[in-house]
Amino acid sequence: MAVRDPLEPDRYGDPLTRVPPSPAPAGAAGGAAAVGAAAVGPEGVEGLLGHRFARPDLLREALTHRSAAPRRGHGSGSNERLEFIGDRVLGLVIAEWLVERFPAEQEGELGRRLAHLVSQPVLAAVADEIGLGAALAVSPGEARAGVASRATVRADALEAAIGALFLDGGLPAARDFIRRAWSGAMVSQTTPPRDAKTTLQEWAQQRGHPLPDYSVIDRSGPPHAPQFTVSVRIGAQQASGTASTKRAAEQQAAAALLGLVLAK
């Protein structure tokens, strides 16, 4: 777990104290119908998040991949609805934090920092750091396919957990967790990260290559929580990225291709 930023005023409490596990609620996901949740059940995730839920059903929903959802349509089921909420809460809390931490920076610099801190790689890394993937309930078939190891699935589950925190404990509960879990990523940002699409375009132009060519190769998910997969190509070199908006997916793809070309 990332430690609190020592430069930050201690306004939001001490570093995460694990909450003692509560008895497993009746009907918790697990068993043959949902692989994964039994490994670290919802009661264990309360310790990871530092919050005891008054409504444990919210946490169970946050940990349920759509492949293991007991019902479709309205009401509780998969974590997609909570992911929708958590994405907005995360953006708000990180934006608030950035404005406090970098009072001299303008919108462009703050925007680049925000885009990085809420990006899929950072979300997946935080989910790995707290061990959230082991608590995610997926169908046996998807478990065999390794769906829980996908960065996009772990990132979505983390956003859903933040959404559950917000609905159960309000903004203070969500803020407390985010400020602890993202502390390392925030402190490591000594300068605003460069825009991946701009950097990739400059790399191509400097070497006489054609400009990057972006295309949407897949769109999935419900209307309220879409997922876009975008491919980017420069000559024979290609990479892809997935995110909840086309713009974010293009950034993910650009960052992935930069990683490939700069490693050569």
Explain the layout of strands and helices.
Blueprint: H1 42-49, H2 56-62, H3 80-101, H4 107-117, H5 120-130, H6 140-144, H7 151-181, H8 183-187, H9 196-206, E1 213-220, E2 227-234, E3 237-243, H10 246-262
Antiparallel strand pairs: 1-2, 2-3
What would the principal axes of the Cα set say about the shape? Answer: globular
The stretches of 5 or more residues where confidence is low (pLDDT under 50) are: 1-38
Q: Kindly state the percentage of residues in helix.
A: 40-55%
Report strand order across the widest sheet.
1-2-3
How many H/I helices? Answer: 10
Q: Kindly identify the CATH topology of the largest domain.
A: Ribonuclease iii, N-terminal Endonuclease Domain, Chain A
The tally of domains stands at 2
Q: Name the assembly state.
A: single chain
Tell me the strand percentage band.
5-15%
Give the topology string: H per helix, E per strand.
HHHHHHHHHEEEH
Q: What is the annotated CATH architecture of the largest domain? A: Orthogonal Bundle
Determine the structural class based on helices, strands and strand pairing: mainly alpha
